[in-house]
Amino acid sequence: MTTFHGHLDGTDLRVALVCSRFNDLIVGRLEHGARDVLVRHGVADDAVDTVWVPGAWEIPMVAKALAESGRYDAVVGLGAVMRGATYHFEVVANHSAAGLARVALDTGVVVTNGIVTVDTMDQALERAGSKAGNKGADAAMAALETFDVVRRALAD
Predict the structure, then answer these.
(1) Any bridge partners for residue 18, and if so which?
(2) Full residue range of the structural domain in which residue 48 is found
(3) Which of 7, 32, 41, 88 is catalytic?
């Protein structure tokens, strides 16, 4: 029996960050956290591309195009969806999460979800670098570890 564990080694990887302009105060912080983690773990700064899209709804479609391009080893979706008075929150939150999962499964490229879904701006700020850490950084670490564990498991 063999056990595989992924490592946080981004050497020679290319990563795309797909970021929502909607709620860009939060998303800018998520992007900064993701980029910082990637570079600190060996991804060259010029091997991290950031692509801005209108909102979280558009993230899966652009993530799919990037994954299918063959240019990237991993794609990280970053956004912030805040609950309002209507059902729109659930539609966007559910679509973006399911869409990112589908992109990963359909393309075989590592795709992670750094889209925070919150009730308030305070909760979003907490998840973008204060009390609750930085979910963009967490999504970037998950991308590195997932890529590495798949590579290790398939190496032999």
Answers:
(1) 51, 77
(2) 38-121+136-147
(3) 88
pLDDT digits (tens, 9 = 90+) for 81-136: 999 777 788 899 999 999 999 999 999 999 999 999 999 999 999 999 887 789 99
- Residue 36, pLDDT > 70, answer yes
Work out the number of other CB atoms within 10 angstroms of the CB of residue 61: 13
For the question of residue 95 being annotated catalytic, the response is no
Could you give the CA distance from residue 146 to residue 111 in angstroms, rounded to a whole number? 9
Task: Say whether pTM exceeds 0.85.
Answer: yes
CATH of the domain at 115: 3.40.50.960
